[in-house]
Design brief:
The chain has 100 residues and is α+β, with helices and mostly antiparallel strands. It has two helices and five strands; from the N terminus they run ββαββαβ. Strands 1, 2, 3, 4 and 5 form a five-stranded antiparallel beta sheet that branches. A hairpin with a 2-residue loop joins strand 3 and strand 4. Helix 1 packs across helix 2. The longest helix has 16 residues. The protein is globular, with a radius of gyration of 13 Å.
């Protein structure tokens, strides 16, 4: 579902079953990956986010970005996994995402 503007998307990404995103260091890795996302995709605006144990909701504004939503989400998931590796096995995501 698109919110407010044509380029605003609310999405949900889920952690692999049995993996908690709230584990020590997990939230910090997610926040750091989210902060770095606009640097990789100039024009992207992170409108909001919510971390839960089993997943994460994001509100992204791609209105000024000529990029595919799936590519942006995959980039975020890869960066979050890489940043969380020192704290354990790393964040493991389920395949894909759902648009709310």
């Amino acid at each position: 579902m698109t919110l407010e503007g044509e380029g605003v998307h609310r999405i949900r990404i889920r952690a692999l079953e049995g993996v908690s995103l709230l584990a020590p260091g997990g939230v910090q890795a997610l926040e750091q990956a989210l902060r770095s996302l606009p640097g990789r995709y100039p024009g992207l605006k992170v409108v909001g986010s919510e971390v839960r144990a089993d997943g994460m909701d994001l509100v992204l504004d791609l209105g000024r970005l000529d990029e595919d939503l799936q590519r942006v989400v995959q980039s975020f998931k890869n960066e979050a996994k890489k940043l969380s590796k020192p704290q354990g096995d790393g964040v493991l995501w389920r395949w894909g995402f759902e648009e709310l």
